[in-house]
């Protein structure tokens, strides 16, 4: 019986402790959410940051793909968000993900801009606890006036 208890103490308890790796200084996922007023699929001079948009940080097991962590947050008045993550997610794939727009006329997620990969571990050589996610965006239902002229600026000229 003593050997079994010793085996549990040496093998099982460390595994349980490492399964929830709390970090001394929490990691902070930081990013911004915008409304693409020109429906360009990227940021233009007409793009506006979106206050009150709902985002989440989600981590999945690298092998099974099963979601093992989820935490939600909202953008502030400038369209920026910060989501504090207290656990280390070394062997997981983590993303910042758009959840919901705060603007009914700009609620369709921009394809390819609805999520941003983030690395949520302290075991990768990054000194800072802040993890910056790429900007994520929604598209307006209809392009604003003046967008056609802006889009012409992005077109290549024939040589």
Name the descriptors.
2 helices; single chain; 4-stranded antiparallel beta sheet; 159 residues; 6-stranded mixed beta sheet; alpha+beta; elongated
Brief overview:
By secondary structure, the chain is of the alpha+beta class.
- Overall structural class, as computed from helix and strand content, comes to alpha+beta
Q: Stretches where pLDDT falls below 50 for ≥5 residues?
A: 12-19
Q: Please provide the ordered H/E string of secondary-structure elements.
A: HEEEEEEEEEEH
Shape: elongated
Subunit arrangement of the protein: single chain
Percent helix, as a range, is 10-25%
User: Count of helical segments?
Assistant: 2
Specify Rg, calculated over alpha carbons. Answer: 21 Å
Mean pLDDT across the residues is 89
The strand count comes to 10
**Terminus-to-terminus distance:** 83 Å
Beta-strand share of residues: 35-45%
Largest sheet descriptor: 6 strands, mixed
């Amino acid at each position: 019986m003593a050997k079994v208890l010793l085996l549990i103490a040496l093998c099982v308890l460390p595994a349980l402790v490492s399964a929830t790796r709390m970090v001394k200084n929490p990691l902070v996922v930081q990013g911004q959410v915008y409304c693409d007023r020109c429906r360009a699929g990227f940021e233009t001079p007409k793009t506006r940051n979106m206050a009150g948009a709902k985002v989440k940080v989600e981590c999945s097991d690298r092998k099974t793909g099963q979601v093992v962590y989820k935490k939600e947050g909202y953008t502030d008045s400038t369209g920026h968000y910060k989501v504090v993550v207290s656990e280390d997610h070394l062997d997981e794939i983590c993303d910042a993900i758009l959840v919901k727009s705060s603007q009914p006329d700009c609620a369709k997620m921009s394809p390819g801009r609805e999520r941003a990969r983030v690395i949520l571990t302290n075991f990768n050589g990054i000194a800072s606890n802040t993890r910056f996610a790429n900007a994520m965006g929604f598209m307006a239902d209809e392009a604003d006036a003046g967008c056609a002229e802006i889009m012409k600026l992005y077109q290549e000229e024939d040589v």
